[in-house]
Amino acid sequence: MTMFTSPRSGAARRRRRARVAAAAVLSAAIGSGFASTMPAAARDVAQADAAMHRAAATERPEQWLWPVPAPVRVVSPFRAPPTPYAPGHRGIDLDVEHTAVIIAPAAGVVSFAGRVVDRGVVAIDHGDGVVSAIEPVEAVVTEGAVVDAGDPIGTAASGGHCAAECAHFGVRIDGEYVSPFLFLGGLPQAVLLPMP
């Protein structure tokens, strides 16, 4: 198995720790009752987001690219589960046209490109324990391929939990799911949607 290794060392570990700590604060703030406690949760999220950006601003050399074409519209946000096995939404759902080109959000090595149940998935190992995955995708890359930020990795397909014309984008740090906004720099456009 090919692993993407980064020349970064101590600084990378500090960045990863800062992201994991910020993710924990953000996840605790969001929790499972986000909709019912919007004012308090929004304040906590804003404080956690500000702390995370202050910690990461000087240490993260670049923000990731959005994996879908502009205009970017988030149709379902990250919702951290209260425990590793509890319900939640371990990524974000992005509005995307069927067959639109999906790109690598950052440099890395494709760690998986294939089918999982009823959908195509592409996962990229970015080094330092960070792995991203997007689905459903018809891959144009294969496992072991080295990609740069912005390289095409596939086209939007169908399947999975998203409705038609939707892509699910998730990020893990050392196996734990975190909000992709930690790497993307926040919402491109804040849109509040009613809870189902």
Outline:
The chain is 23% helix and 28% strand. By secondary structure, the protein is of the alpha+beta class. The chain has one domain (10-184): Distorted Sandwich (Glucose Permease (Domain IIA)), CATH 2.70.70.
Task: Explain what this protein looks like in three dimensions.
It is a single chain. The chain is 23% helix and 28% strand. Strand 4 and strand 5 (119-127) form a beta hairpin. It has a single domain (10-184), classed as Distorted Sandwich (Glucose Permease (Domain IIA)), CATH 2.70.70.10. The longest helix is centred in the first third of the chain and has 21 residues, at 10-30. The radius of gyration is 16 Å and the shape is globular. The chain is α+β, with helices and mostly antiparallel strands. The strands form 2 sheets. Strands 1, 2, 4, 5, 6, 8, 10 and 11 form an 8-stranded antiparallel beta sheet that branches. It has a 3-stranded antiparallel beta sheet with strand order 3-9-7, with no helix packed on it. The protein has 3 helices and 11 strands, in the order ααβββββββββββα. Helix 1 (10-30) packs antiparallel against helix 2 (38-57).
Principal-axis shape equals: globular
Compute the CA-based radius of gyration.
16 Å
Q: Could you give the distance between the termini?
A: 42 Å
Please report the first level of CATH classification, the CATH class.
Mainly Beta
Q: What is the total domain count? A: 1
Q: Mind telling me which CATH architecture this is?
A: Distorted Sandwich
CATH superfamily grouping: Glucose Permease (Domain IIA)
Main beta sheet: 8 strands, antiparallel
Residue stretches low in confidence (pLDDT < 50, at least 5 long) are: 1-9, 20-39, 49-61
Q: In sequence order, what are the helices and strands, one letter per element?
A: HHEEEEEEEEEEEH
Q: Please, how many helices? A: 3
Indicate the percent of residues in helices: 10-25%
Reported by name, the CATH topology is Glucose Permease (Domain IIA)
User: How many β-strands, per DSSP?
Assistant: 11
Strand composition percent: 25-35%
| Average pLDDT metric | 75
Class by alpha and beta content: alpha+beta
